[in-house]
User: What shape does this take?
Amino acid sequence: MRRVPGFAALRVLVVGLAASVAVAGAVGAAVLYANDNAGGGADGRGKTRHGVTTGAADDGRTAARPDPALPTGSPVLAEAEVRATPPELMAITTSAVPEAALSRLAGLKRVRKVAAEDGGTIRIAGNPLQLLAVDPASFRSWTPQPVAEHPEVWSALSRGELVADAETVRRLGMNLGAQYQIDGGPRLRLAASAALGLPAVDGLINAELGRRFGFSPGVVVLIHGESPDARAVKRVLGAKTHILTVPGKTAKTGAKNAGGKAGGKAGGKNGSASTSKSTGGGEKAGRGLVGRPASYLELYRRSAGVCPGLSWTVLAAIGQVESGHGRNNGPSSAGALGPMQFMPATWKAYGVDGDGDGKADIWSAYDAVPSAAKYLCANGAAQGGEKLRKAVWFYNHSWDYVNKVLGLAEAYARAYR
Assistant: This one.
C-alpha cells in the first residue's frame, strides 16, 4: 500500500481512462453483489432456489438454534428513495480543496452541486487501485440510479468493505466475496461490484478506512449541473487541476448479482427481477394486514394470522434462514429480494400491503412477512404435516432447506412457549 499525494498520480489515472469511459458509457451490469447468504440462507451456504443452483448444498445438519436477537430486533422498513444526481465533471487536484473554493464552484453558472472526496491508491498483488474514500450516506446520490438504489453497496461500505468498479473486477479477474491482501496493509473483502460511472476510479471504500490508509483528503471534486464549464472550474481550482468529463447519463439497466442477471431463469417460481421497489398485485393497496409491530417476534406472530393454522415459528425460521431477520436483504444469487427473499414475479402475485401505507414493498419486512404467509398458505401450509413440508419446499426447492426451516421452527417453539 502506498499513499498518492493529492490523488494526483495522473499518469496512472489517465492510462485507465479510455477503458473506464467505455465501460461507464455502456453501463453493463449496474451491480454485482457477493451475498454472504447467497442462495437464500443466512448461514452462508448455497442451495437450489426454484430450480436455480446457487452454491454448495446445505447438508441439513446445521444445529437448529433460534436467533437470540429476534425478540428485540426491530423490523426494517424499505430503503428510502434516492434521487441520483451523478457528476458531469470530476476534478483531481494536488491538495485539499478549501471550503471557499467549493463555494465558488457551487456559484458557477450551470453548477447545481459540488462535493470533495478523499482519494488514494492501494495495491493488491502489485496492481494499483485508485479509490475514493467516501461517506456512504452523502455519496450515494453521486452514483447512477441503479447503484444508488442498491442497498448492499452502501451497507458494504458501512461495514468497511470494498466496492469495486465492474471493469476493474473484470480486468483483474477479482472474485466477489473474496478477501484480498493489500500490499503492506490488511486484508479487504470485495463485497460488491458496480458500474460507478466515474472515470479512472477503480472503486470505493468508506472515509474511515481511507483515513487509516493515509488517503489524501478532499482532492477529488465532483460537480453536478447542466453542462458546467470545465474551463471555469479549472480557473477556480488552479492550472494543475486535471478535469475529467464523466460519460453521459448512465444506468437504464437494473441490478445484477453474483449468480447472473437478476431476472434470469428461476425454475418453478419466478421470472424477471429488478432492485427497484416492487408493488404486488395480490392485495389492494392500503389494506394493512399486520400494521407495524415493534419487533420481529410480534411481526411473525401477527403475520401467521394471514394463514390460520400456520405457526408463526415457521415464518420466523424462514426469516432467519433467508435474511437473518432483515440483516441481509439481497439480492441473492438467484435474484431474490428483501427480508423474505421473494423473486419479483412471485411477489407480483403474492405481495401484500402489510402495514397499510398504500404499497406492497418487497424490501419492507412489514409487507414481506405476511406475503410469505400468504404464499405458504396458497401451497397448503395451514394443513400441517406433509402439506407444510411441501409448502416450505415450494418456497425453496431443496429438502435440506425444508429440514433446516422446520428444525428451526421447532427450536423457536421450545424457546418461546
